[in-house]
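Our platform keeps sequence and structure together, in a single record for each protein. Because each token names a local backbone shape, the row as a whole describes the fold. One such record is reproduced below, unchanged from the form in which we store it:
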Amino acid sequence: MEITLKHLLERNVFEKIEIHSGASQLHRVVKSVSIMETPDFDKYILEKTLILTTLYPIKNDMERFLLLLDSLHMKQASGLIVKVKRYIDRIPEVIIEKAKALDFPIITLEYDANLSLLFDSIIAEVHYAQYSTHNFNALYSTLLQDIVQKPSTKALIDALKSIPDIDVLIINLFNNNIHSTSDTILTMYNEQPLAQSSYHTLDEYLIINEVINYDGVDVYRLMVMTPYEQRHIIYNYIEIIKLMIILIYQKKQENALKQNQFLMDFVANMTSNYQSNMQVKEAGKIFNWNITFPIMLMMIDLKETIIKAYQPMILSQIKNEVVKVCHIHESELRLILLNHHVLIIANLKQPQHYKSMMVALHDSLKDHFQEAFVRAAYSTPIGEASDIPTTYTSLFETLNHARLNQLNSSLIHDHHVRMVNLLKKLDSSVLLEYARSILKPLLDYEEKHDLPLIKTYYHYIECQFNAKQAATQLFIHYNSLRYRLNVIESCGYPIFSNQESHFEVYFALTIYLYFFKQKE
């Protein structure tokens, strides 16, 4: 259905009117309405638009008034509605004669007419007509059905592609994934830096940018674009699109809670349903989890205050880092939030490079989350689902112990986890006495010269006596490491001559670092 000038007159949108010209042209279609009160009106005339004006800018300029008629006629405007007795008392005869010659409608309103209210009334009529041309209920039902079945912005974008004259782009603010209905709006987004919340025109388009906020958190950014002459389409659909985006977020949160509970039951052995690898694989399909064995577990200890403030974003960023470092797909990993711990369960593609990959993942997470990261612990490769609960418990208890005792290490290996769990059963005073008896020369030198020999010796053994690798892990120059190793040798430790005699020193270093040394 299209709105015409005659329709508006019959609907009594205007009161106390007088038609001066173009009475035979009242069937002209009205696609938009503009209040024109600027002298450079030529720039703003749209095709099939209805002009409301007081003629203030050209009240004493007959030549510009005649030019206005030419411009309106050329753009096939719907008509000119003039409020008289404000700045002009009547339409000049020469203007009326020209309008009659062009067969162009000029209508005057009385002084008490309110142009702003008229504008709103006409827009409402135009919008109502546009709504009636679409099967809006059917569209809404289709969108709702698609989103409930698969709550994703990609599914929403695919459904919106069927609507003509509108382009939509949605950005997930947690992982920066972008989905769009066309390359046009994607190019516009990439090439034009626009404010996150704005309403403006660019070239021949009307663009609306909005940040979608849910429960105090910015979750998505929405960009909607349409030809300016079809701008009513945006008003028709934007609120429904925003509603669908919120629904998607809510459904994702709901699914995440269900998945989190499933994973918690699984790793904490709260149910006996997942004892075999096949049972776990079948259960994982419900949540689109493509788990294959062997897998790895890594548990990260994060600062609780930062977790609470940035929880959704941090989880998404951790997932991105794991995907990037471990070279796996999102469907091959899952995260569980446990207060200030995050448990990562991921497929292990290259077991032979496992340790170096875990070190790289630790370094990447530590660098990316400098304000939040405390430490991480990881398991050896797990080949059987039945081993997961005990491994999870071991990692969890080790990180709690590390936090309570302020252990110095930020990456705890699986064999360290097992060793620490064994040592925790012993008297701590006996452990400390043992460690100090082995490390006394180093501790005395450290206290006197403030040179970190304990940490240096530990990393040197950890790197299998590779000086270059140890220097890299300690962030010092190779020559500085050689100097420290010479000092350790001078303290009575055969660091160069007999590498087979380092077990008791390594054992003492581990006890000291993991149980007694405070954070530097």
